[in-house]
Design a protein that fits this description.
The chain has six helices and five strands; from the N terminus they run ββαβαβαααβα. The radius of gyration is 17 Å and the shape is globular. The strands form two sheets. The protein has a three-stranded antiparallel sheet. A two-stranded parallel ribbon has the order 4-5. The mean pLDDT is 93. α3 crosses α4. By secondary structure, the chain is of the alpha+beta class. β1 and β2 form a beta hairpin.
């Protein structure tokens, strides 16, 4: 079985600070993996390396057996960053359509909205959403292109208990 993403003895330094030190990890198909650690432990740095947003100081990162900076590899990757910036004047449906327009095989807007509890918000501007609604939209966008691998950086930040439960249920359904 070929790993969807792999890190082999990856180190990432920011000047004198070592954010990751000799990390090796394979993410296999069908796997759900969580990274736990305190703030500053390097979790977001690791995700940025897999996404091709940063280069390792040493070691090798592969995404679908390619360099993560390769556009063809990233086309099968869905991501939600820790902090999400949505254009405040665009409506939820417009944002989903815009992001979905970058993928040949995308999830239809209505289907994605229903899955993530956004169906009643499609005509609302993103600037008028609550923090939890913005977060649900951000996570939903990671799935719009029917990715083979999804990276979620603190996906439930800003959600209440029921919102977290509903979001994890939606993520599990997407996984299936």
């Amino acid at each position: 079985m070929t790993a969807l993403a792999s890190l082999d003895r990856v180190t990432r330094r920011f000047g004198p600070l070592t954010a990751l030190d000799e990390v090796s990890l394979d993410i296999d198909p069908g796997q759900i993996l969580g990274l736990l650690g305190p703030n500053g432990a390097g979790k977001s740095t690791l995700l940025s390396l897999v996404q091709g947003l940063r280069r390792p100081s040493s070691g090798t990162v592969r995404l679908f057996e390619r360099d993560p900076r390769d556009t063809a590899a990233r086309a099968r990757l869905g991501c939600t960053p820790q902090e999400t910036a949505l254009p405040p004047v665009l409506k939820v449906g417009e944002v989903i359509d815009f992001v979905g327009g970058h993928f040949a095989d995308r999830t239809p807007t209505a289907q994605l909205a229903e899955e993530f509890g956004l169906e009643g918000l499609l005509r609302r501007q993103t600037g008028a959403l609550s923090g939890g609604q913005r977060r649900r939209l951000s996570v939903a966008l990671a799935f719009v292109g029917r990715p083979r691998l999804v990276l979620l950086d603190e996906p439930t930040t800003g959600l209440d208990v029921d919102g977290r439960r509903a979001l994890w249920d939606a993520i599990r359904r997407q996984h299936e």
